[in-house]
Amino acid sequence: MKQPIHIVEDNALNSELLSVWLEAEGYEVLSAANLNAAFAALEKQKPCAVLLDVYLGSEDGLSLVSWMHQQPRMCEIPVNRSNGSGPGYRRAAHS
Predict the structure, then answer these.
(1) What local confidence, expressed as pLDDT, does residue 83 receive?
(2) In sequence order, what are the beta bridge partners of 32?
(3) How confident is the model over 8-63, as pLDDT tens digits?
(4) Tell me, what's the pLDDT at 93?
(5) Distance CA 84, CA 69 (A)
(6) Which long-range contacts (CB under 8 A, 24 or more apart) does 54-62 make?
(7) Torsion sign, CA atoms 6, 8, 80, 67
(8) Which CATH architecture does the domain made up of 4-93 adopt?
(9) Whether the Cβ atoms of residue 6 and residue 30 lie closer than 8 Å to each other
(10) Cα(75)–Cα(55) distance, rounded to whole angstroms?
């Protein structure tokens, strides 16, 4: 059975690239483009890890991490956080 990994990423291209790579490595990939979808996916299936974009449009991806730490069955799941596009991207895009 493949181990599930959740990708929480609002950029469709980034999500697709990560999915292709992880599936080639033998993982089952579940993707969510926003926090509501991420919460629902985590309730449905416990992953072995979460790849999280901390900037999800107007949503704060770190709230997902806080919520996970409060859930006994999810508090030890590793979370890899990123800002999706490299240092300064969001700052420059919104200046």
Answers:
(1) 76
(2) 8
(3) 999 999 999 999 999 999 999 999 999 999 999 999 999 999 999 988 888 888 99
(4) 40
(5) 22
(6) 54/81, 54/82, 54/83, 54/84, 55/10, 55/83, 55/84, 55/90, 56/8, 56/9, 56/10, 57/10, 59/34, 59/35, 61/8, 61/35
(7) negative
(8) 3-Layer(aba) Sandwich (3.40)
(9) yes
(10) 21
pTM (2 decimals)?
0.83
Would you call 6 helix, strand, or coil by DSSP? strand
Which amino acid makes up residue 74?
A: M
Encode pLDDT of 16-30 as tens digits: 999 999 999 999 999
Quote the tokens at residue 49. 């890890």
Single-letter residue type at 48:
C
- Give the number of other Cβ atoms within 10 Å of residue 44's Cβ: 9
Nearest to 78 by CA among 4, 1, 28: 4
How many other C-beta atoms are found inside a 10 Å radius of the C-beta of residue 26?
Answer: 8
